[in-house]
Design a protein that fits this description.
The chain is mainly alpha-helical. The chain has a domain at 22-46. It contains one helix and two strands. It has one helix at residues 26-39; strands spanning 68-69, 72-73. Strands 1-2 form a two-stranded antiparallel sheet. A hairpin with a 2-residue loop joins strand 1 and strand 2 (72-73). The protein is flat and about 70 Å long. The termini are far apart.
Length: 75
């Protein structure tokens, strides 16, 4: 074999989008993700979950400023 070869490792961080899951399904989903990554030949160093807070309803901007609507001046 001819050519220039380099022994290398690649470390990547991945993240899913927010998923609405029943509480009893979270651990199963994490295990399925781990299994899918291993099937791709990837070593799983860690998997962790982050709970996403529900978004708060935005107050209309013009509620505080009667001269604007969503940051735009009114005519």
């Amino acid at each position: 074999m001819e050519g220039n070869f380099t022994l290398a490792k690649i470390r990547a961080t991945v993240e899913t989008g927010a998923m609405l899951l029943p509480g009893d399904q979270i651990d199963k989903t994490l295990e399925e993700l781990r299994a899918n990554l291993k099937r791709l030949g990837l070593a799983v160093l860690s998997i962790e979950r982050t709970d996403v807070a529900k978004p708060q309803a935005e107050e209309a901007l013009d509620a505080k400023d009667p001269w604007s609507y969503r940051g735009q001046a009114r005519d």
